[in-house]
Design brief:
There is one protein chain. This protein is an alpha/beta fold. The protein is about 45% helix and about 15% strand. It contains five helices and four strands, in the order βαβαββααα. Helix 1 crosses helix 4 and helix 1 crosses helix 5. The longest helix has 18 residues. Its main location: cytoplasm. Pfam families: YbeY. This is Endoribonuclease YbeY.
């Protein structure tokens, strides 16, 4: 497994972000029964930078808490059948499945932890689990899909002890 981390802000989280994100990424992979070794890129940034990315890719001129950029187009969420038919899905050097990128605003992690009355660790874990489910093809645009994602997020976080 390859998890690449880039910390692109001077704002410091008062926790071991690598350890938290790695635990959540690994649990998400297990939870979704992914049969492959994977590669995930994780970028932690600030509100100004995530706002620029949000504007560029989603046309929304506001900072957001997390952005997910899946590399795979699934027929159904977490449907790994047929992925080996395309070499584009795998890193040619490592053979790992290229899941995609997670971009998190450190400022939003701290703001939302305070707003929701839980720890920074829990908020970071939540945003990572949420983003991982997007990388596995889940979405929350309609209520039925949103409820599925929410249930999966809570189960992943509960298993790891990241509760409210």
């Amino acid at each position: 497994m390859t998890f690449n981390y880039e910390y692109e802000t001077d704002i410091e989280l008062d926790c071991d972000y690598r350890e938290i994100m790695t635990k959540v990424i690994n649990e998400s992979i297990d939870y979704e029964s992914c049969p492959y070794e994977v590669e995930v890129n994780c970028i932690l940034t600030n509100n100004d930078e995530i706002k620029v990315i949000n504007q560029e890719y989603r046309g929304i001129d506001h900072p957001t808490d997390v952005l997910s950029f899946p590399m795979i187009e699934y027929n159904m969420p977490s449907d790994f059948n047929g992925l080996e038919d395309s070499n584009d899905n795998f890193n040619p050097d490592t053979g790992e499945l290229l899941l995609g990128d997670i971009i998190i605003s450190v400022e939003k992690v701290m703001e939302q932890a305070a707003l929701y009355g839980h720890s920074v660790e829990r908020e970071l874990a939540f945003l990572t689990a949420h983003s991982m489910l997007h990388l596995f093809g889940y979405d929350h645009m309609v209520d039925e899909e949103r409820l599925i994602m929410e249930k999966k997020q809570e189960e992943i976080l509960s298993f790891l002890g990241f509760t409210r």
